[in-house]
Amino acid sequence: MLTETVGTAPERSFLPQGDRSLLLVDDDRPFLQRMSRALEQRGFEVVTAESVEEGLAALKRSAPACAVVDMRLADGNGLDVIEALQRAREDARVVVLTGYGNIATAVTAVKLGAIDYLAKPADADEVIAALSRKAGDRAAPPENPMSADRVRWEHIQRVYELCDRNVSETARRLSMHRRTLQRILAKRAPR
């Protein structure tokens, strides 16, 4: 049986009746705490984990009805948590969050059972809307999508972090002059 509403949302929900258990996995502690509080205020029973290892341990204790999983975690990939959850509970609804979205990981996440893929920073209402969406329904276009400059900046920051903050290596991988990269890194993020 399906429940008719989620929190105060008027749209039809496709969450299992009465089961409001949710696993939230993210290694960004401030984000994890904010999202956990927001979801609890909307009626979810939230269990948090800051790593793949903690997420897998939480799944062994109890497989939740829903999960919100960050793609990149300090000790591995959130896809491992999604795969384990789908084995433990086939009807679980999973939303993937990431600051480093790309088509390949989105496809993999969906193949493993994720129902949606949201870019960080997502808020609790976006997460609940994604969890409540009927399979096959398309999400509405974002009200305030990232600008092209912001997407470029995010990509540069991602490569910079993956290169252990080595400017020369990052510049080489991005086919960019080192001084140009240094100027970009010194600036604030575009809106």
TrEMBL record:
PROSITE patterns: RESPONSE_REGULATORY (PS50110). It holds the Pfam family Response_reg. SUPFAM superfamilies: CheY-like. The modification 4-aspartylphosphate is found at D70. Transmembrane segments: none annotated. GO terms for molecular function: DNA binding. PANTHER family: PROTEIN PILG, STRESS RESPONSE REGULATOR PROTEIN 1. Keywords: DNA-binding, Phosphoprotein, Transcription, Transcription regulation, Two-component regulatory system. Residues 21-135 form the Response regulatory domain. It comes from the Bacteria. GO terms for biological process: phosphorelay signal transduction system. The keyword Transcription applies. The keyword DNA-binding applies. Gene3D superfamilies: 3.40.50.2300, Homeodomain-like. This is 2-component, DNA binding response regulator.
